[in-house]
């Protein structure tokens, strides 16, 4: 099987590498033409996996270029992550371009999604949780899946969406992972963790990057005409942990003392609303101020997957090279 993975951030890199480890050839597409980083390569189960990944230059906003890159692929993975502040304008044409490329090539479309479409919830989120977005970003993501499912139902494409909670892990990139940036890194280095939003003791589900990739591979290898496609799956995710618990565990993984977590006061964030990215956090603030729990039972049972052991995931995040796991 040949796969086109679009988006060379942490998610795309891990998916490309795990597809290669499974014996498939992969084109990893991005505007820069970047390949897997050293942090991600250190997690490979096989040292020769990277030889089956070819980095190519493709702008996902260019529908013609995307369709051309998809020619000959059995699967297209949409792992693109445009800047928060551009979602309302950047996502609709890109999502349409992905559907067009899938229809033209006959490749199945795997979209990596998130939980924003569920809005404010009072119980663990399963695939059956009603979609009720409470802001623009949630509406954008909900609309993307609505369009993809309509195209799937009309037999124009074969589509599936994999939804993860806030992710962490090696290769996430600077400023991309909330947990990496505001909790794990400072706690592991002995500094006070100062997350910009949230209750430090609220339970929260955190999804490990390689676990997103593991589900993507399992779904990509499934029969596209079968019941595993045309639906949503939740990525296998560990039991919820508060920011304070994560900081403690990250400090322990780094061999340090217990960590201190002091979320920034609301008044500080109110003053910082002149910064566009900070304003964007308002829509998702509720996710960090109350329990935000992902139920991934369905995917775990269907594909026989389990989330990576929590201590192993944190160790790899704190010290990617030290957690090297390839066997040959």
Automatic annotation (TrEMBL):
* An MF annotation (GO) of this entry: aldehyde dehydrogenase (NAD+) activity
On the tree of life, the source organism's domain of life is Bacteria
A Gene Ontology term for the protein's cellular component: cytoplasm
Q: By its UniProt entry, which SUPFAM superfamilies does this protein fall under?
A: NAD(P)-binding Rossmann-fold domains
Database matches in Pfam families: Epimerase (PF01370)
Q: Which residues form the NAD-dependent epimerase/dehydratase domain?
A: 4-227
UniProt cross-references to InterPro entries, sorted A to Z? Epimerase_deHydtase, NAD(P)-bd_dom_sf, NAD(P)-dependent_oxidoreduct
Q: PANTHER family, from UniProt?
A: NAD(P)-BINDING DOMAIN-CONTAINING PROTEIN-RELATED, PROTEIN YEEZ
Provide the protein name.
SDR family NAD(P)-dependent oxidoreductase
